[in-house]
Design a protein that fits this description.
single chain; alpha/beta; Alpha-Beta Plaits; Rossmann fold; 3 domains; eight-stranded mixed sheet; four-stranded antiparallel sheet; 20 helices; 12 strands; binds adenosine-5'-diphosphate; binds magnesium ion
């Protein structure tokens, strides 16, 4: 996974990551607040003996540290402070290496108790310490305890540390979130970006068509000719013109997809219109005899069309419907036959296509999807190649890969891919005009030498509206 892909993944799954951070942070905060707070009081004492010439030894100091945790000290402290006999006391000590100095640490859930106990430890040690230092006891002396640092009054509890725990929770939540996001990313079977397509095929991506809002699909080239989508259809046309040069002058493309509803008809209709805008005489043929929808999408009469001509009931020229104010003619599907594949594979269809290719500068053919039926392959043989529409919303890697495989098996070339329904922020538009979250990365890409594939060819016209 490259850095760029990783960053894109993070940007796409930020909600999941934020949710993990919030969840773990909240859990840490709740767990912290449920813990009993611990307060600490510290004191430092100096130990001496009142016996002449007797110095407190390190062995004595070790003994005194042990005494702090024993009933010998703790019972009298409890009695003095009026605490119940069973009340646990947490008293610890540590000694300096080279001096008879003892650091005493007292911890308690109650700050006052911690402070009071720390105050009592010194006097108790003074009263009984002598008995536990054998040589000192033999000399008849006792221990003198002098406070070097008086006991501190606890302020904030030493634990739990809410701020630290929240920071730790946030860090763990972030790591968890990124981990879960990566997992989801790798388990995600959907096609989302051009990278996903590039991982499946070396065929160029000829356009990145933005996802339209509900009710804004159909003949976008006419309804909103200055939209981002219209620009992309024009780019698709321009890139296909370059591919067309390599197809032996067939000047025709089949628009297909792996599965239904990826946007074949929408793409075919708008692509045909974009071609017509460039001054070419264009024929749009609805050869999706399973689910004909060109006539419906364009609001045309659909009862006669391709199959009518194939039946010999009408001539092509008499039946095509000119699209107003353009060089576009439309041939709807006509009545749905019981045997679409046989019909499309027939001699009659082949000769009708020859006729259409002769009569027009460009023929755009709408077709059924590749995975369920063979029709697109049959049509592909009659034309200059296949344009594979892949939906970034509905397309699955497995399905696209299966379609590419079955096309490869029958030696049917894919001219290129049109990635459809790409969320607006992610369309290549941001890249052209400095919009969108990936503007930066593409500006970097653009500085690289252009690869010799059509997808990198840019539209010289029309006037750029989005020069922002
Ligand atoms: N770029 C797009 N953005 C949003 N919706 C789209 C887009 N392209 C197609 N659609 C919608 O998806 C549905 C299927 O599109 P259609 O072109 O009929 O697909 P197909 O011909 O592959 O079955 C239609 O409702 C259409 O309006
Ligand atoms: Mg369709």
């Amino acid at each position: 996974m490259q850095v760029r892909e990783f960053l894109t993944m993070l940007a796409r799954r930020w909600k999941l990551i934020v949710a993990c951070v919030l969840l773990v942070t909240a859990a840490a905060a709740v767990a912290t607040m449920q813990q009993t707070p611990v307060y600490e009081s510290k004191t430092r004492v100096f130990l001496a003996s009142d016996a002449q010439g007797y110095l407190i030894s390190s062995a004595d100091l070790g003994t005194f540290v042990e005494l702090l945790g024993s009933p010998v000290i703790q019972d009298p402290v409890r009695a003095k402070l009026g605490l119940d006999a069973g009340t646990p006391l947490n008293i610890a000590g540590s000694v300096s290496d080279n001096a008879p100095i003892l650091d005493i640490l007292v911890r308690s859930a109650n700050p006052q108790v911690a402070y009071a106990v720390a105050n009592e430890v010194g006097p108790q040690l003074e009263s009984i310490g002598g008995q536990y230092a054998p040589l000192l006891a033999a000399a008849g002396g006792s221990v003198k305890v002098t406070a070097l640092v008086p006991p501190t009054m606890p302020g904030e509890p030493i634990s739990p540390n809410l701020r630290n725990n929240i920071a730790l929770g946030a860090a763990i939540g972030l790591a968890l979130g990124v981990g879960v996001a990566l997992l989801v990313h790798f388990l995600d079977t959907r096609i989302r970006t051009g990278n996903d397509v590039e991982a499946l095929t070396d065929r160029p991506i000829l356009a990145t068509l933005p996802r339209a809002r509900a009710g804004e699909t159909g003949m976008i080239m006419e309804d909103s000719p200055h939209s981002i989508a219209a620009e992309e259809y024009r780019r698709l046309r321009t890139n296909l013109q370059f591919v067309d040069v390599t197809t032996g002058g067939k000047h025709s493309f089949v628009v297909t997809s792996a599965m239904p509803s990826e946007g074949k008809t929408t793409t075919a209709v708008n692509l045909a219109r974009a071609y017509a805008d460039s001054g070419a005489r264009v024929l749009l043929v609805d050869a999706d005899l399973r689910n004909p929808s060109v006539a419906r999408m364009l609001g045309l009469e659909g009862s006669v069309g391709l199959t009518t001509v194939l039946l010999g009931q009408a001539r092509l020229a008499d039946i095509v419907q000119p699209w107003p104010d353009s060089d576009l003619d439309v041939l709807p599907a006509g009545p749905v036959p019981p045997n679409p594949s046989e019909l499309l594979g027939s001699e009659a269809t082949a000769s009708l296509f020859d006729q259409m290719l002769d009569a027009y500068d460009m023929v755009i053919v709408d077709s059924p999807p590749v995975n369920p039926v063979i029709d697109a392959v049959l049509l592909g043989r009659l034309t200059g190649g296949l344009l594979l529409v892949v939906s970034a919303q509905r397309g699955r890697k497995r399905e696209v890969s299966a379609a590419l495989k079955s096309l490869d098996t029958v030696d049917q070339e894919v001219a290129g891919v049109a990635l459809n329904m790409v969320p607006q922020g992610e369309s290549s538009y941001g890249t052209y005009y400095g919009y969108g979250d990936n503007a930066k990365r593409t500006s970097r890409r653009r500085r690289r030498p252009a690869k010799a594939k059509p997808a990198t060819v840019r539209e010289p016209e029309p006037a750029r509206r989005y020069t922002g």
